[in-house]
Amino acid sequence: MPIISEFYGITIRVFYDGHAPPHIHVSYGEHEIIVGISPIALIKGKVPNRVRSMVLEWIAIHQQELIENWELCQSGKSPHKLEPLD
Fold first, then answer.
1. Phi then psi dihedrals of residue 65, to 5 deg
2. What does the domain layout of the chain look like in residue ranges?
3. How far apart are CA 55 and CA 57, in angstroms?
4. How confident is the model over 17-68, as pLDDT tens digits?
5. SS (H, E, C) 13-71
């Protein structure tokens, strides 16, 4: 599961053989969430509110790139790294 971005202790990954709907896996310390890309929605898990807010903001900024990365992974290709949240 490649890491596509890291910021403020948050690690964002995407699976090569992920199942629908398009989503990312986010870890922060011992916490982990799965977040849908389109629509942007928490699917599973729990992280501190501050982390969740940053992740949702980051997804909104990179939504189209995340969809493209999802499609690359579904084709067995490597996803692109994405800029971290400033």
1. -65, -35
2. 3-74
3. 5
4. 768 899 999 999 999 999 999 999 999 999 999 999 999 999 999 999 999 9
5. ECCCCCCCCCEEEEEECCEEEEEEECCEEEEEEECCHHHHHHHHHHHHHHHHHHHHHHH
Nearest CA to 50 among 2, 1, 3, 7?
Answer: 7
Q: State yes or no: cis peptide before 48, omega within 30 of 0.
A: no
Residues 73, 59, 1, 84, CA torsion sign: positive
Residue 51 in tokens: 């982390």
10-13 β-sheet, strand order = 3-7, 10-13, 23-28, 31-37, 40-46
The amino acid at residue 56 is L
